[in-house]
Structure formats: C-alpha cells, structure tokens
Amino acid sequence: MVKYTVYILYSEKIDQFYRGQTKDLNDRLKRHNKGIEKFTQNGTPWRLMWSTIKETRSESLKLETKLKNLSRERLIRFMLKYKEDIAEQEILLFLQKLT
What we know:
Blueprint: E1 4-11, E2 16-22, H1 25-33, E3 47-54, H2 57-68, H3 72-81, H4 89-98
Antiparallel strand pairs: 1-2, 1-3
C-alpha cells in the first residue's frame, strides 16, 4: 500500500514555510528546488524541516489542510511539539530560536 508524507519546507531566501503532502518526498523536494513547482519557485532552495507518514491520502490531506491553516507562530509550535518528526537536530535548534 502506498503511504503519503506530509511535510513542511522552509526557504531562508524568502523566510517562509511551505506545507504539502506527497507519495514521493524525495522527488517532490527535487521538484520544489528545481523551480518546477510554480508556487515555490521564488524560494529556492527549500529545506525539509518536518515530515510524517500517513497511511492514506485522506489522512495526509486532512493534516496538510490543518497545517496550512496555522499561523507561522502556531506552525513552529506544532513542529516543536512533534519534534520527533523534525528532519535534523540542527533544525530543532533553529525553530527554538524563532519562538
């Protein structure tokens, strides 16, 4: 069964977070960083900050929608709350500085 990844990216260039979901995180991250995805092309390079796996597309879309509705501050608090899904220890320190 195909699993889905819900993810949060960050662009230092434009100081913004991007939330999304996909079946293939590595391919999707490459597409974001090559400027193929119109919405994120101005922010390259994008860095993976947080991700989690969901069993169904329905679950992943539900979480993606929740994340997209969070303010920047609440999104950062969300990532810190679920820090076991943060991509790297260095990112945890970065997020803690933002709060």
